[in-house]
Structure formats: C-alpha cells, structure tokens
What does this fold into?
Amino acid sequence: MPTLEDYSRGAAGTVQGIGEYFFEGEEGLRPAPESLGNGEGAGPLAELSRRWRRACQSRCAAGFRIVDLQKKSSSKITLRLEVRLEGRRDPERVASLAFFDLDFERPADSAPWTLRASRAVGGPGNIQAGLPHLFEEAAERGLGVTNEALDPVEATNLCLPATHHHPGVLLVDVDGDGAVDVIVPGRRPRLFLNDGLGRFRDATAGSGLDLLPDMEASGGVAADVDGDGLPDLFLTNHVSPCRLLKNLGHGKFRDVTDAWGLGGLSAPFTSAVFFDADRDGRVDLFVACYGDARTTGPSYRGLNGVGDRFFRNVDRDGHPFFVDETAASGLGDTGWGFAASACDVDDDGDDDLYVANDFGVNSLFENRSTPGHPRFVNIAKESGVEDEGYGMGCTWGDFDGDGRWDLHVTDYWTPFQWILRDSRWPMPAVPGSFFARPWMAKIMTQRTRGDGLFRNLGGMKFERVSERAGVADGGWAWGTEFVDLDGKGREDLLVVNGMFRATTGKDDEIGFWNAMGREGVNFHDGVWGGIDFGANGMASHTPKKLFWNRGDGTFEERSFVEGFDTREDTRGLAYADLDGDGAPEVVVASFRGPILMYANRWGADGGGRVVLRLSTPSGFNRDALGAVVRLHAGGRVQLREVRAGSSLMSQSSHDLLFGMGANAKADRIEIRWPDGRRDTLVDVPAGTRVTLVEGREEKRDLLRR
It folds into this structure.
C-alpha cells in the first residue's frame, strides 16, 4: 500500500528536515538543511523559529503534518504544512499553531526536492503563553476508575462499526445534598458521591448498581421521572438490555426496568435524552440507536440502522410507565445514531430534538406535539443542519451572544483529504471500481471536512461557520460541550477525540485510508476483518480541543496552554461545578482508559459567576427540564436551558452556570418555566448561587471562594 512518502511524492522526508529550524544548535539556529536550498525560501519558517526559540525554554516539541498537496507538474508541488509547537517557559506554558504554503522543485523525478518559496497562511503564527487554568485531578479527588470493555473485539484494534465508541459520563446530584455526583457507565457502572468540595467516594457497593450484571453500558441519562424529587437513572447498553433504575434516595437505586415498561429493550443503543416531548408535564425518553454490525454494514446512505426509539411517559398504577410511540411521534430515525440533544430551537415553548448519525445524514426534529400526542417533523435539510459528516456528538449553545440557539456537531476531520485525489489511493478489487473513484473521493471529502458549527440565523435557518470560526478540526471527534470556562460571559467550546489505542505509540492514519479504500465495499456489506491496526493506532494520541471564544464569532485553540492536554483515547465529556465555587469542572471518559477530571482554577484571572438551580414543587418534571433562562448583564444576554442528555452518551449538570465577566451583578434573570410561567430576578450579585423553586421566593447563597 502507498505510504505517506509515496503520496507526497517524496516530500514527506524533506518536510521533516524543516524541524531543524525548531531545534537548538551549539551556535543557536541550526543551518538550513540542503533540501531547503539557500534558506531564503524558508524565511517565514525561520522567522517563526526565531520567535519560538525566544519563547520556549524547556520541553520544546515540534510536530508537522502535510494537510494539503497540489501537484503543479512532475517537478513542482505546493504543499500546506501544519506546524504545532508546545513547550515551557516556567512557570508558563507556550504553544503555537501555524500554517505555511511551501513551493518545492526538483530537476528530475528521482532527485530530492528543494524549497523555493514559502508563505505564512493566516498570519505569521501567534505564540501563546500563559499559566494553565485546568488541572487533571481525578485520582487525587477520588475518581480513580478505568473503563473496561466487555466485548473481546474491543481489546483489539480491529475496525468494526459499533465498537470502540464508548463510554459517556453523567454529572448529577444523585442524593439531593446540593453537590453534583458522578456516574460512570461501563461494564460495571460506578457511582461516586461528592462531599460538596469536589472530593469523591466510591459509593457503588450497596447502591444497586452493583447488582447489575456485567454489560456494555455505553452511556445514560438521569432525571426525576416519577415526581419524587430524586433523579432516576437510565443506562444504554449496546447488546444486553438497557436498564432503568429508580432513585430511592441516599445514593440507592432499584431496578424498575420491567415494571416501568422498558423490559427487553435490547439493541445497539448509544445516547439517551429525557425531555417532556408533548408538554403534558411528564418526562419522556428518547434513545438513539446504532446499526447492528452483527448482521450488516452501514449502507452507503446510512439508512439501515436498527432505528431510534421514543417512549412516552404515562401513569400506570400510580407509577411511570413508558409506552413505545416511536412510529406515531415520527422519531424513528434509521441512521446509525450516536448522539442526541433536546433544545427549544424556535423558542415556542417545547423542545425540538437533534440527532447525530455516524452513518446517514443528521436530523433536526421540529416539535409539533400537542399534550398526549407527541409529533415531530424532520426539518434538517431545509434548516441547513443535515451535516453529511460522521456525526458523533452534539450540543447546543449561544456562542455569539445573539439570544438564539447555535449547534455544534462533532464529526471526523482528517489532514489527509488530499490523498483522496491521488490515483494511487486503493480501490476495492471489484469490476468497475476505477470508474467509482471520483464519486468515492467526492463523498469521502464531504464526510471528512470536520466538525459542524451551525450559527442560528432565526426562523429555524442555520449557516455552517466551522471554518470561519476556526473549529472545523476536532480530529476524530466525540464528546463536545459549550461552556464558559473563564467566566468572561462567553461560551467556549470543548471537543475530545481519539480512535484505536496505539500500543506502539504510533498512529497510522494513512493505513486507515488505504484500508478504507481497499475494503470499502466489504465494510458496507458487513464483511469484517480486513482492517486491523494491530499494535498501531489511528488517532489515539491527538490533542484535545479547547476553543476559547474571542467574542467576535471566532475561537482560538488553547488546549495545551490551558492544561487540557491529555492524549488519552477519549469519548464522553460533561461539565458541572463540582466544588461549589461556580466555575465549571470538566469530566472526560476514556475508552479503556481512566476517567479524567479537570479542576477549574481560573479564579481571579476570570470573571465572576452566578449559578442557578431550578426545580418545580410538584408534578412529574421536578428538574424543570426545558426551562429556558436569559441572564442580562452589562448590555449582553446569556442563554441557557435545563437539559438531560447531550455531548456523546453523557450528561452535564442540571445547574445553569453563568460567567459575569467584569460585571458586578446580573441586572435581571428571566426564567421561562416548562409550563410557560415566567419569573424575573433582579440585581443578582456575581458570586451568588440562586436556588429557585417555581412559584416560591428564591434562595441566594454565596459561592465558595
């Protein structure tokens, strides 16, 4: 199979010589390698190198990737080079991400390439510097747990759909003491109770979770579905039956799967959402479902999944009972579903639903229900959010502060789209495959252009702004959330990624693309075994993404400088204020790896905080799912909604977290409750936790400093 050196026409090795510019010699800058000619053509690279040498004092590292290649002739090529720099200038971290277009020439096909000209793309490359604000402290905080896979295939790097994609993580106040706890789905689900200061104890033993059989629990969702004020728990399984557990209080659960109507719910289920679909005051359940790789592969249009499921919550003998109304509701999407999230996109008082499919275009279901009669219509195409990538995670937020819900969908981004144009990219060994090459290249290019950030234009219309905003490259992306990390009053964007853990430390993405070209027909026909990375990975050491919101519609990637720098093979992601100071901590789940918990230390470097916890005094939606809040401060508005289920197989806290920036107070906070009632709070100081039960006076407490 062709190698990177082959696809680059021998330029890949030459590119590695550019690294000489970023390593110290005895006399300072090392001489330019012969492949860089007289060095004049590499001027912009040398200039970045000089600035980097002044900025970085220790642990300096440089990485290079060819992200595009244009063949001008047999003797001339132009390639686009990504340069990623990371290091230390104690006590600060320093980093840079820059792109250059490089023109190479050679006198004959077998001769080495010589750099003739280079141009910085998008500016000369900013060098970031600063103290980190996120610190990984899971083990020392008591969250020492590692994901275990039940399926023996997942102990290998054999490429099969429906494997290697879990787990998620749930952040929810299980025992009602005001502190957000952690539930980790997996072969043996775990419960960690919070002492209120962000320290945890493993409370699995005796919780009822320990009575569950070994299973492939991928993710879950938690909310009060029976009206007793305690969040109940639904766990999605990939093959064995899903489980619904009633919260008994004090960190105890009882399995009520059969009694509450969900017995025998067995299929390759992934993410789940609790929401009141028909505004009857009861919390309903949506479960996304993948395809069954035991019987088939994904069709080319991706519409042969098992089918998502929707269950309406009704009363039966005084307790909830979930009735399958998938067909009547219109929510039976047959893509290979990975993620879902509810949101009142059109601000009409009921939650719409977005579903991200790995195979098959995504769906935006507009809610047209009446009480007792859930009904949804898929408007994704006309809204502009079908997103033809490999959908793997989704979340809602208002990144531009215009008061409308924007959407982020994680997909797959590759730096190697350019090899799809190469005639040496392998095709399946079937008659006529040569003629299918242009079609396959077009489809694969479309599906690998990266994450979708969709800006809400109003009227249920969206525009994709991923590239303009600087967030398209999420890698092989999974979990994602909008969250104001620094308290400046703007939502930042987090993305985690990874795929196929490398035991050798080597990722072989070129090998993946060669195999997908060669085995594409078998892959879609469900004939497995032809793609096995063995000891190599595919994207298992890729940087995670912390896109810091600049406030002008664009983001700056700052993961390394801020400390969000794990190289684990990560999947689910969620956030919550775990230690009571109002700042969001971030919890990340890894495939066959540890749970990660990032403590937030922005403190004085960030803005003030306001936390809002909502509930209703009675009924069957005590968590106030679907409540929408607008906080006004300093002439700007921030938008939040109480949800259960988002990201990938995960759930962030029901608490609503706001950053106040330099504002001393929120001028007003407007709440629209799920039943349509409205409340307004005024003059809420920064540093306040507000607890509000619908129809009662709010309770204000100081956040912990």
Q: What stands out?
A: Confidence is low (pLDDT under 50) at residues 25-29. The radius of gyration is 26 Å. The longest helix spans residues 509-525. The first strand starts at residue 24 and ends at 25.
